[in-house]
Specification:
The complex is a heterodimer of chains A (251) and B (578).
Chain A lengths: L1 E10 L2 E11 L4 E5 L6 H8 L7 E6 L2 E2 L4 H6 L1 E4 L11 H11 L4 H14 L15 H13 L5 E5 L7 H16 L3 E5 L3 H7 L2 E6 L2 E6 L1 H8 L5 H9 L2 H11 L1
Parallel strand pairs in A: 3-8, 3-9, 6-7, 7-8
Antiparallel strand pairs in A: 1-2, 1-4, 4-5, 9-10
Helix pairs in contact in A: 3-4, 8-9
Chain B lengths: L1 H19 L4 H35 L5 H36 L2 H7 L5 H24 L1 H9 L4 H29 L5 H30 L4 H13 L9 H10 L9 H35 L10 H12 L5 H15 L1 H27 L10 H15 L3 H4 L11 H6 L4 H29 L7 H25 L13 H25 L1 H4 L11 H35 L9
Classes of the chains: A alpha/beta (251), B mainly alpha (578).
């Protein structure tokens, strides 16, 4: 379970995240939406212990991320927006490194790694240095590394960027399976179709402020329209000028 | 032509704004300081060269002008050849980065601009940059030559043009080679080959310069004249069709009273340079785009090896260390093993140390010092410090960048459940181990060739503790001022070089302090308050304070670094590129 309590982050005079509070239950997939620069990545960083909030608290399964960052990180998996892998390691060495950090049982780690390597079609490349990997392969490597310890909470920042359609579909299936197993998935994305199709709950953030948290159905009720998530999102985040432009384009 | 000039003008504008129009005053001051430092280096090198050439001229008796010219021409040709070799091997990597890795190339290739114009602009930009950056080393001896001969303005002008033309010839040939190779070799593989070639070239330069300085120590005036006439007899002057000969002759021909025909060398040089550039550019219209696409490709999957290897591979895949610290350390060690730049640093330290030991042994044998004479504390201390200095040479590059080279992976590292002290100690061992190994090799060599040293039970612990202190300071500077934008081994990452300079500067006061304390018994008698001490007491105080300082430096830098890492892990302090 994820809980954000009055999370605020200032960078100098600029307030990137402003008093954000919400909770995501176990077994839920939460899609975090917002325009560029809205504060999505900053919020994810604060929730996953990568950034200390200016004020407020974050809890993962009841563990305070600020007070016990190492304990909190033991139960989370993190997929950054930009894939980051160690170029001078092979994929297998990288996965062994992660398995050692999380102190996962040798046999279990191997089985999990083998399974994901097969799913993502990377078995043939697992002994190559990752410096020769393409963007998509690096992204897959990061996803496997985040899943190898079977995390209770998974954070994904734009996970489908740079992936081929098959891999994107695989990820969606994996995330659905995780939620069925009672795990919590927190994902930021700009692809609203994915959010609409998969998310149990959505959160919409704009200029650091949380505009909405709830199900897509609740969002429709709140907005009083029956449109798609894309339309609802645009309605909620667009300025008056944008709204006029949209209605003009629609004719 | 219009497109070519437009691209060049844009590149120049970008360079100018990124260098001098930064919003940060600190950055502008840093840039100006760096340029001033380069200028100071150039002035120093010019004065040194001018004096050397003056001395060389003075070696010859009056009336031997023709021989002087021949000798000077030999030196000039060797310098030109060195410049070209340097350009050809180290410049290849820079050319590769400019032509095939520049971020704007993908954008430019998608525009209606002609491919050959994009290629020509990138090649010109790159050659201009290489010319400017290595002129400080390669052109300055020629300016020194001009000063020694009291040459006129035309000498300097013709020298600069000749060098530029030489650069264009060899740079274009190097680019031509790249165009051809890129069709067959994947980008990553070629990059590794170029990196290895560059580092081997660097090692050869270090080795030759050390050998040269070692031999120069015992050279008489007669030896120098003989060596020069030996070079002249090799007949390189007669190979007048080679561009480096044209470069040297075009320059030397404009010295006062020269017998060499200037135009006979200058015209072919300039014409050939224009032709080679034109030819390479024309060829790029057909080859550049396909080569650039190949540069973006990843390595092709390796062919499956024989079944006999399968078991071995499976065991390797299961290889685990079982603890976060072990995992961190293993990662660092694999990096050390696989990064050629690290080996280069270590090899440089060992070569320099080897020559120091060799020269020291020679001087010792010439001065008749043998084991029967009681060992001298000063010599022992100097030798100990030399081992320390050379062993610590790789510290700024290895430990001084240990955290920064996490680069974009830092965010991934932050997300792992790993204690900051675990990260610290793995980074420390990563920096410490190669230096300690170098130090121990140094001790073994010094011991083997019987150079004056303290007993091993003093030497080895002193080196081990002192290196630990120095490495902890190297690491401290990186943890306090990390820069995750640095790309190790990239010629475009000037931030890396600046950072290493910063680490070296930070190390100076520490080394001076440790040196001053260790050598306390040489100078205590000259300082009033200590003058009454007996030599034994002074020695005990010096060594005691030295031990206290090294251990103190080690403890303070380690604890403050770990505390700082805790803040970096939670993003509580800013770090460049994090």
């Amino acid at each position: 379970m994820i809980e954000a309590v009055n999370l605020t982050k200032d960078f100098g005079k600029f307030r990137a995240v402003d008093n954000v509070s919400f909770h995501v239950n176990s077994g839920e997939l939460f899609a975090f939406l917002g325009p560029n620069g809205a504060g999505k990545t900053t919020t994810i960083k604060m929730l996953s212990g990568l950034l200390i909030p200016t004020s407020g608290e974050a809890y993962l399964s009841g563990i305070s991320v600020n007070d016990n960052p190492v304990e909190a990180k033991k139960i989370l998996g993190f997929v950054p927006d930009e894939p980051s892998v160690y170029d001078k390691l092979t994929l297998r060495e990288f996965l062994n490194f992660v398995a050692d950090i999380y102190q996962i049982d040798r046999k279990k780690a191997k089985e999990t790694a083998d399974e994901y390597l097969e799913i993502f079609e990377l078995e043939d490349r697992q002994d190559d240095l990752m410096q020769g990997y393409s963007h998509g392969m690096r992204q897959k490597a990061n996803i496997i590394a985040a899943l190898i310890h079977d995390p209770q909470v998974l954070f994904l920042d734009e996970p489908t960027v740079g992936l081929d359609p098959r891999s994107a579909r695989l990820i969606k299936d994996i995330l659905k399976d995780m939620t069925k197993e009672g795990k919590t998935v927190f994902m930021s994305t700009h692809i609203l179709e994915i959010a609409e199709e998969m998310a149990d709950k959505v959160g919409i953030i704009q200029k650091g402020q949380l505009k909405f948290v709830g199900t897509v159905e609740e969002l429709r009720e709140a907005q009083g329209t029956e449109g798609s998530l894309e339309e609802l999102f645009l309605q909620l985040t667009a300025s008056e000028e944008d709204k006029e432009l949209i209605s003009h384009l629609k004719g | 032509m219009q497109e070519y000039l437009l691209l060049l003008r844009t590149s120049l504008k970008i360079w100018f704004s990124s260098t001098f129009k930064s919003k940060s005053k600190k950055k502008i001051i840093g840039t100006i300081f760096a340029y001033l430092a380069l200028l100071a280096f150039a002035v120093f090198w010019t004065i040194l060269s001018a004096n050397l050439f003056k001395d060389l001229i003075a070696l010859f008796p009056a009336g031997s002008e023709i021989f002087i010219e021949k000798s000077i021409l030999t030196v000039a040709q060797l310098l030109a050849l060195g410049t070209i070799l340097f350009l050809f091997l180290t410049g290849l990597r820079i050319l590769y980065e400019y032509l095939y890795e520049s971020q704007d190339v993908s954008f430019l290739l998608a525009t209606p601009l002609q491919v050959e114009n994009i290629f020509a602009a990138k090649l010109t930009e790159c050659l201009g940059l290489i010319f400017l950056s290595i002129s400080f080393m390669t052109l300055t001896p020629f300016i020194g030559l001009g000063i020694a001969f009291k040459a006129g303005f035309f000498y300097y002008l013709s020298t600069i043009i000749s060098f530029l033309a030489g650069f264009v010839i060899f740079g274009s040939i190097a680019a031509l080679l790249l165009l051809l190779i890129m069709r067959f070799v994947p980008g990553q593989k070629l990059k590794q080959i170029l990196m290895s070639l560059t580092l081997i070239m660097g090692l050869v330069i270090v080795f030759v310069s050390q050998m040269f300085s070692s031999n120069m120590m015992n050279m008489t005036e007669e030896d120098i004249i003989n060596a020069l006439s030996g070079f002249s007899d090799l007949g390189i002057n007669k190979m007048s069709f080679l561009p480096h000969v044209w470069m040297a002759k075009s320059s030397v021909a404009t010295l006062p009273n020269s017998q060499i025909n200037f135009w006979a060398n200058f015209i072919p040089l300039v014409v050939i340079s224009a032709l080679v550039f034109w030819f390479t550019t024309k060829l790029s219209a057909k080859l550049y785009l396909s080569g650039w696409s190949s540069g973006q490709e990843t390595d092709s999957p390796k062919k499956k090896r024989a079944k006999s290897n399968a078991k071995n591979k499976e065991e390797k895949r299961l290889s685990r260390v079982g603890s976060p610290f072990g995992a961190m350390l293993k990662k660092e060690m694999l990096y050390l093993k696989r990064e050629p730049m690290m080996w280069y640093q270590i090899a440089v330290g060992l070569i320099v140390l080897g020559f120091f030991a060799f020269n020291n042994a020679r001087i010792q044998s010439q001065s008749g010092v043998t084991g029967s004479i009681p060992p001298d504390f000063i010599n022992q201390s100097v030798n100990l410090f030399m081992i320390l200095l050379f062993a610590g040479l790789s510290g700024p590059t290895v430990a001084g960048l240990a955290l920064s080279r996490e680069g974009k992976n830092w965010r991934f590292m932050q997300s792992l459940p790993v204690e900051p002290r675990t990260v610290y100690w793995s980074k420390f061992i990563f920096g410490y181990l190669p230096c300690l190994l170098e130090g121990l090799i140094g001790v073994a060599v010094f011991h083997y060739i019987k150079i004056e040293m303290f007993p091993l039970y003093i030497t080895i612990p002193t080196i081990a503790i002192s290196l630990a202190a120095l490495i902890s300071v190297d690491l401290w500077t990186d943890i306090y001022f990390p820069n995750f934008n640095i790309k190790i081994g990239s010629s475009k990452s000037q931030e890396g070089a600046g950072k290493i300079l910063l680490v070296n500067l930070a190390m100076m006061p520490i080394i001076l302090l440790l040196g001053a304390t260790f050598s306390f018994q040489w100078w205590y008698s000259k300082v009033g308050i200590f003058s009454a001490l007996s030599p034994e007491v002074a020695k005990a105080i010096g060594l005691g304070v030295f031990a206290f300082e090294t251990i103190g430096v080690f403890i303070i830098s380690s604890t403050t670094s770990i505390n700082r890492l805790k803040l970096l892990f939670t993003g509580a302090v800013d770090a460049k590129g994090a």
